[in-house]
Amino acid sequence: MQIEQTTSGRSAECCAREFLTFSLGREEYGMDILKVQEIRGYDAVTHIANAPEFLKGVINLRGVIVPIVDMRIKFRLGQVAYNEFTVVIIMNVLGRVVGMVVDGVSDVVELGPEQIKPAPELGSDLDTRYITGLGTQNSQMLILIDIEKLMSSSEMQLMDNAA
Length: 163
What we know:
Elements: E1 17-24, E2 27-32, E3 36-41, E4 55-61, E5 64-70, H1 71-74, E6 87-93, E7 96-102, E8 104-111, E9 116-117, E10 131-137, E11 140-145, H2 147-151
Parallel strand pairs: 2-11, 5-7
Antiparallel strand pairs: 1-2, 1-8, 3-6, 4-5, 6-7, 9-10, 10-11
C-alpha cells in the first residue's frame, strides 16, 4: 500500500473514513462504521401500540430494550418482504441503542475525501438533510447518510419516547 504525504506531513490515508454499506431496495447506502454495534438476522419483535408504521417494535438484546426501525418503510420503498438476507444493524446513536432493518449488508468500505461528493440539491419536496454526500468506489455509488441526524429527527420519535 502506497501512502501519500500531504503538505502537513501527515499521510492522506489518515483522512479516509470507513462506512458500512447496506442495501435498501435497489440503492446502496453507507453509514459511519463507528456507529455500528453488531449485525443480526431479523427476528420477531414485540409490537408497540400506536407506534409509527416504520417502528416495527422492540427487542430485548441482552437486557437492553432496543427499538427496531424498518428503513424500507421509513423511506417508502414499496412492498417490504422479510427474507434470509434481511438484517438488523444494531447501532449506538446519541447514547441509545437502536436497530435498523435493511435488505442486506454489503461490505465495509474506506473512502477518502476525494471519493465523497456533496449531496445534490434536489428541490424542496425531497428531504436530503440526512444525506451527507455521495461516495464512489469502483464505479459504485453510495448514498452516505448521517445516521445520528436521521435517528434523532423529530419524525422518528426514537430518542425521547421509544422504549
